[in-house]
Design brief:
homodimer, 465 residues, 2-methylcitrate dehydratase PrpD, 60s Ribosomal Protein L30, Chain: A, 2 domains, 8 strands, 7% strand
Chain lengths: 465, 465
């Protein structure tokens, strides 16, 4: 029986090719731009993890880690205030939860995944444990991004309706990244992928009552992927065709449609790392096209906050639907989902960073007054392009009576429009600030260290009190 | 949005009732026969865990536990040869894997689950850690069986086609059992159930290449259920309607059909513990109706092995399909799936225990000769009753020329035909023997201890070198 079922499904050929690529990748063979982008994504991840480290879900998981895990080891909790070292599985569990709190982590559009929040914490914790160097770490992360995002894209949109793909694709990517660090042979790599895949989990049900599973999913994807890789090293056998097999992830979790070609096409040419977007503004992503257009317009025409009489934000229907739910934005969280308030913040501060959305800002009459002069308008052309392109147009009427407009085709932070390193450093500082860390000297040291990551002899010292 | 989606799905009413029942159950309110059966199931589990402790998958997971977990604590690896104590999560991880190796663990028919292999290792490890007494342990296990089997039955047959229900229902049952031990309030119990459910995983893909996920699934269900219960104690919020919610287990994993009434009907009246079967013979379950019929016939007519000329085993189609795959039974494993060989063993030894299937037995000409005189025959009436009843009929021709037949309606070990304690003790001794443990005095001590479990002040000492 096993042979015919296996053959009917291509005999695991695609998964085997992906696993072979994951084993064979060497730092020296990775294009320079992929290496540089990986370092940028990693710095972005460090900031997100610090910013989220005090969330109640993270604290609960950290307590569990102290109860159930060792309190000595070589792997660091990124929240140094815990004052502990531990084993890689528990460091990654807690750090993976922390980095998925503030909604500022990266996004791989095609797979609808946030790869940083699963790949980096797992690879970092294991690299610390085995004293891997910067080059090994970067190569493992490139592998992890690739495998995670390809599995996420393979599982596709129907899967994403029910499952948190960051976790279900992520656990497989983690297994591959860690297996690369542990220098698995082919059988062990396939076993790690198989064992991770048969443990893939994470349902969207938590969104309905705003509970804490989001952080559980990413932390556990780290833990479970590390588990899969280590037991594979100890020769625990995993199913060889976990993606496409008759009782594998695609058939069980794909809900009727998958994209098998995503598993192995253009391997080594089309890098997931290069297809990942940075999130620049701290507001809902549906406000970003309008924010980018407004900031661009203000810069081009040297306009100030007080020069603006009113703004019409032309956008797609999905944005109007989502942004219509948060009313006037009475809480900090809601205010990030309120187009008028977000544009007011951007216009006043020239940015909309995580530290710009505060209780004080909510009570600022100037911001509230500006907000009242913003309207959203449906734009049929923009809507027809969504979601392939997240375009935006703003029409501004100035106090002088002058009317001007500006459009953007891509979001700032998208692969087509990456952040500059200066912008990324500014975002990082804001995230550290938000996370209550104020040793500015050390922040600058960390930033410079990441820019030279390939020269590092180890990955120790990514822990902040 | 959340309200209407919630209401459309009954507002988590069934899950809330199940959680409330799980919190409220006290040892004193459990019917005597449920307590006694729980102890029997626990002894059966101890034997299965010892018998499986040296399997390569278990060894790999034990190595991981030593690498990633603490090597001090109050929870015991049932394999005392590791010489270590650990935290409850890791003890349960390894012990849960060990008890699902030899295919001798219990079966809850309606849910198609093996509850013992997930509920007992988790409850035992936590009971050891918090020094719960025998009564608390028994009550927690009754809760765990109930919740696990109800979730498994709710998810149903379509789910079972793809998912290893022992793990997916099991993780929720573990969370409930552990939450009972930790004395969760209602909000914490619901959170534990929710967090466990959003982590439910385990695919049958591993069957296709005979890999080791079976033990991963049960060990990880223990680990993940313990995780869910402990983080809930630390006030991590889980989704409240993880079973029936629009993006919950039923909709995501139920594959189009679920049985919602199974969640909460007849709670406290219909106990899963009483609906669980013991596996008596060590062979494939499809051989059991014929083995039971043959042994009954031989006893009634005082027949011996050498008195039998030939046997016709009348059975249902599924048995013929499965048992047709193992040829003549060239390996010990295959021999348990070969009707002729299994009946030969049963006829010769008066039983078919785990220690009766050996390399020596494979080479025994008397057994092989008997095997050649056994045929299987399709029986339309028996087939029409399957799988509600696993009936069997044997027609025996004696050397004397006499023809006799015998039928059985239930399997030995089924709820309708439970094992006697003497039989269970014999099975336990065989399982210890198979697991390489020969301190017979200690085995007898353990057996007696389990029969008095409700009087025990703690659960320490279930570890065997």
């Amino acid at each position: 029986m096993s042979t015919s079922l296996d053959e009917r499904n291509g005999g695991a050929a695609r998964t085997t090719r992906l696993a072979k690529w994951a084993i064979d990748l060497q730092y020296e063979g990775i294009p320079k731009e992929v290496v540089e982008r990986t370092k940028e994504l990693f710095l972005d991840w460090v900031g997100c993890a610090i910013a989220g480290r005090h969330h109640p879900a993270v604290s609960a998981i950290a307590k569990y880690a102290v109860q159930m895990g060792p309190t000595t080891g070589k792997s660091e909790f990124i929240d140094g205030s815990l004052g502990l070292l531990t084993s890689p599985a528990f460091a990654a569990l807690v750090n993976g939860a922390a980095s998925h709190v503030v909604e500022q982590d990266d996004l791989h559009n095609r797979s609808m995944m946030h790869p940083a929040t699963v790949i980096f914490p797992a690879a970092l914790a294991v690299a610390q444990d085995i004293q891997a160097n910067g080059k090994d770490f970067i190569a493992a992360c490139v592998v992890g991004y690739e495998v995670a995002c390809r599995v996420g894209e393979y599982l596709g949109r129907n899967h994403y309706e029910m499952f948190h793909s960051t976790a279900t694709g992520g656990v497989v990517g983690v297994a591959a990244a860690v297996s690369h660090l542990l220098r698995h042979n082919m059988s062990q790599m396939l076993s790690a992928i198989g064992t991770a895949g048969t443990q893939a989990a994470g349902l969207w049900q938590f969104l309905i009552d705003a509970s804490h599973s989001k952080q559980v999913h990413t932390g556990k994807a780290c833990f479970d992927g590390i588990f899969a890789a280590y037991v594979a090293k100890h020769n625990l056998l995993g199913p060889k065709d976990i993606l496409e097999g008759p009782r594998g992830m695609g058939n069980a979790l794909g809900r009727g449609s998958t994209s098998p070609e995503a598993i192995d096409q253009s391997l080594g040419i089309d890098f997931a790392v290069l297809q990942s977007s940075f999130k620049w503004h701290a507001s809902c992503r549906h406000t970003h096209p309008s924010v980018d257009a407004l900031l661009s317009l203000m810069q081009k025409h040297a306009l100030k906050f007080d020069d603006i009489e009113s703004v019409v934000a032309r956008t797609y229907q999905a944005a109007i639907n989502v942004l219509g739910l948060s009313g006037r934005g009475e809480t900090v969280h809601q205010s990030k989902f309120t187009m008028g308030f977000v544009l007011a913040v951007a216009a006043k501060y020239g940015q909309a960073m995580i530290t710009d959305f505060t209780e004080e800002a909510l009570r600022d009459p100037a911001l509230r007054n500006f907000q009242d002069r913003v309207t959203m308008k449906y734009d049929a052309h923009i809507d027809s392009q969504f979601p392939q392109k997240w375009q935006g147009t703003v029409e501004v009427t100035c106090n002088s009576g002058k009317q001007i407009s500006e459009s953007v085709e891509y979001l700032k932070g998208d692969p087509q429009l990456p952040l500059t390193r200066l912008e990324l450093e500014a975002k990082t500082r804001a995230l550290f600030d938000y996370g209550g860390y104020d040793d500015t000297k050390n922040i600058e040291r960390v930033i410079q260290r990441v820019w030279q990551l390939e020269d590092e002899v180890d990955l120790l010292g990514f822990s902040f009190e």
